[in-house]
Design brief:
heterodimer, A: 4 helices, elongated, B: alpha+beta, Beta-lactamase, 5-stranded mixed beta sheet, 5-stranded antiparallel beta sheet
Chain lengths: 113, 610
């Protein structure tokens, strides 16, 4: 009985040691992957900052007004004027197109209740 | 220790007498002694065992507790705190009220040299001078071949320049990352933003510090990493600001003025929607301050906040409003207006002679100095002063810019009768246009004190009531009449019911006295008059405009007012103010329920990795 117990305990210890070894390496892999991702996030953040800066540089009022002047022939954009404000209920919207008739003819029945 | 003998003589002798074996006694004593030794040994072994097990329990207990803590606590990334703190350490962005970027950071590189590591210093100096034309080759050669171990070459270089330096292939030329502050909109809102420079510098990083304006006033806030990269949202609207600068610039040129300032402020909140001062500068390349001469000649000078001008007749509404508040007069009270008026040895004149008597409304509408002085005399010096203090005209504005304290109004130290008289029509007390904006906003805000601010959407305590709502309403009504039939008729913009007051003040000479032909023309306005929402101040420095008769006019009515009218025409639609017209548009019954799409954000979702 005793040798069997010894054998079992030894195997158990070996198993646990192996598990701990693997777990240790998995943790380290996760940590290095994490820091990799962190670096990536930092890089992306930097890129994002650059893109935001570029976007706002491209949208600077000076450039936009130059573009408006260049494309005046096509777009005819002028500054907003006071007469361009209208309430929603002053607008005569066209009637929306009728919903397409469904082939099965079941849809109208569903609308009844 | 006393050892018990194995063969005690007395017992042996006694045992021999009785004929017993004395060896038994020895065996007995030996046994007792062994038992004692055994006991001792066992106790020591037990002690060791207890110690050992305690050690084990402690060790495993520690591991167990740690495991338990790990298992029960929120899982968090290891090392993330360190790294994200690094990411966040950069300066926060500054945006306008709609989230458009006004100031942000860009990563560039700085260039430095280790001359002792150089392979061919002379060639490196030559190549560098070719890449950067502003560097002096002879000096570089001297520095590189001398005994220096380290030197900066350029603070900020572009990626193209960096590649060119790489191409030199010199191992002694090194790059360090540099965070650079950029203002993508260039000149727009330059005075508000101020600018930034480098503080403590190292090879791997440099501190970005605010130098002026909001950048400096919020320096600590912007650098505080605990805000998680949240931007500072100013109350400025980029579109309105740039439109104001554009209109003001052309107005300034048209009126051949030296400088101009404009402020558009929300009445209810005191938030500044646009504030411009011309000439301006590019905060990306902030010019050096002037060391001599008049600081107001520098483009860095912010006329709206730092400029101390005698704002002239725009002040007249204050004593009149106060007198109506105290029920000393009503808009129809007759005021003696025979010009000139004598106070002590001084004479006070009107621009024209307006006859013997004017109603209080006409004093404002026709801008009568004498009439205003009479009203101020009814109030008395103490009450007049007290009201101006309450309007905030005695202290610097509370605006969040480092320049604010330099806008300390120039207040006369003593108030004899003549000072009280001149202050009532805006001479002898110099304040910034921003002071005037805050004071007019206070009148327009039903007499509740308004403090100007540049931060958007901040909860602030409600201002003190300095004027009764009734008097404030009457005052705005009078200002409206100035535009409909008074000195500011050119300011009538259909639908926006502008109410305002012109002010033309002679510029004081630095040596004392006043210039004859240099004025500061101001128009302070509130619109729409029936429910004031915005206050706008326009100030032109030394304007003059040719009149139809071939003469030259410098009055605010001919210079500042048309510019202000154009500003309202452009800006009011931009801030979403509808023109009020009598024209009735037909109301169309909806044929269906229109579905209004909720307005999307700017398409960027900010995520955090916490």
């Amino acid at each position: 009985m005793r040798p069997l117990t010894y054998l079992a305990v030894t195997l158990l210890v070996m198993g646990l040691a192996f598990w701990a070894y693997r777990e240790n390496y998995r943790t380290q892999a996760a940590i290095s992957q994490m820091s990799q991702i962190q670096r990536e996030i930092a890089g992306l953040r930097e890129d994002l900052g650059v893109l935001r800066a570029e976007w706002s540089y491209l949208n600077r009022p000076e450039r936009l007004s130059e573009l408006v002047d260049l494309n005046f022939e096509r777009l005819r954009l002028v500054p907003v004027e006071s007469g361009q404000f209208v309430d929603l209920d002053n607008i005569d919207y066209p009637k929306p197109p009728a919903p397409p008739e469904s082939a099965e003819g079941t849809a109208p029945e569903e609308e009844k209740p | 220790m006393i050892r018990t003998p194995l063969r005690p003589l007395a017992r042996i002798l006694r045992a021999r007498d009785r004929g017993e074996n004395p060896d038994e006694i020895e065996a007995e004593n030996r046994r007792i002694r062994h038992e004692a030794i055994q006991d001792k040994a066992r106790r020591r072994a037990e002690g060791r065992l207890v110690l050992m097990s305690a050690c084990f329990v402690l060790a495993f207990g520690t591991v167990g507790v740690r495991m338990g803590a790990l298992a029960s606590s929120e899982p968090s990334e290891p090392r993330s705190q360190v790294l994200s703190a690094q990411i966040m350490s950069q300066r926060a962005d500054i945006t306008d009220r709609r989230g458009r970027v006004l100031a942000t950071n860009l990563l560039t590189h700085s260039l430095y040299a280790h001359p002792h590591q150089m392979v061919d210093p002379v060639r490196a100096a030559k190549a560098l001078a070719k890449v950067f034309p502003d560097l002096d080759q002879a000096r570089l050669t001297k520095d590189f071949t001398g005994s220096r171990k380290f030197m900066w070459i350029k603070r900020k270089i572009s990626p193209e320049q960096m590649q060119a330096v790489h191409d030199i292939g010199e191992p002694g030329l090194l790059f360090g990352p540099r965070e650079m502050r950029v203002y993508p909109n260039g000149h727009v809102a330059s005075h508000i933003l101020g600018g930034s420079g480098f503080g403590a510098e190292g090879v791997s990083s440099a501190e970005v510090l605010g130098v002026a304006g909001v950048e400096k006033a919020f320096d600590n806030w912007l650098r505080d990493p605990s805000h998680d990269g949240a931007p500072l949202a100013l109350s400025i609207d980029l579109t309105v600001q740039s439109a104001m600068e554009e209109v003001l610039n052309s107005g300034m040129k048209l009126m051949s003025a030296k400088g101009a300032a404009g402020i558009l402020m929300e009445v209810k909140t005191g938030e500044i929607v646009a504030m411009a001062s011309l000439p301006d500068f590019n905060p990306n390349e902030r010019p050096r301050p002037l060391l001599k001469g008049d600081p107001s000649d520098s483009p860095l000078f912010n006329r709206a906040v730092q400029g101390q001008y005698e704002l002239g007749s725009t002040f007249k509404i204050f004593p009149v409003a106060q007198a109506m508040d105290l029920k000393l007069i009503n808009p129809n009270s007759g005021i003696n207006s025979s010009s000139p008026m004598k106070i002590g040895k001084y004479l006070i004149h009107d621009f024209h002679n307006y006859g013997k008597q004017l109603s209080a409304t006409d004093v404002i509408v026709k801008s009568s100095n004498v009439g205003t002085v009479r009203i101020a005399q009814m109030l008395g010096v103490e009450r007049q002063k007290d009201f101006l203090v309450k309007l905030g005209l005695f202290e610097p504005t509370a605006i969040e810019m480092v320049e604010a304290p330099t806008g300390q109004p120039l207040v006369p130290r003593r108030w004899p009768a003549v000072t009280s008289a001149t202050v009532s029509f805006g001479h002898g007390l110099a304040a910034s246009p921003l002071h005037l904006a805050a004071a007019y906003a206070t009148i327009a805000n039903d007499g509740r004190r308004v403090t100007p601010t540049l931060v958007h959407g901040r909860q602030r305590p409600e201002g003190e009531q300095v004027l009764s709502p009734r008097a404030a309403e009457l005052a705005v009504g009078m200002l409206r009449q100035v535009v409909t039939r008074g000195t500011a008729r050119q300011a009538e913009v259909e639908g926006y019911e502008i109410a305002g007051k012109t002010g033309t003040a002679d510029k004081p000479r630095p040596s004392g006295g006043y210039y004859k032909n240099k004025v500061v023309a101001t128009f302070a306005s509130v619109f729409p008059a029936s429910d004031p929402e915005y206050v706008m101040i326009v100030t032109l420095d030394e304007p003059s405009v040719a009149t139809a008769g071939g003469g030259e006019s410098r009055t605010a009515g001919m210079t500042a007012v048309p510019v202000a009218a154009e500003l309202v025409r452009r800006l009011a639609p931009l801030v979403g103010l509808k023109a009020r017209t009598d024209e009735k548009l037909p109301i169309v019954a909806a044929r269906f329920q229109p579905r209004v799409e909720p307005s999307p954000g700017d398409g960027i979702k900010l995520v955090s990795n916490k």
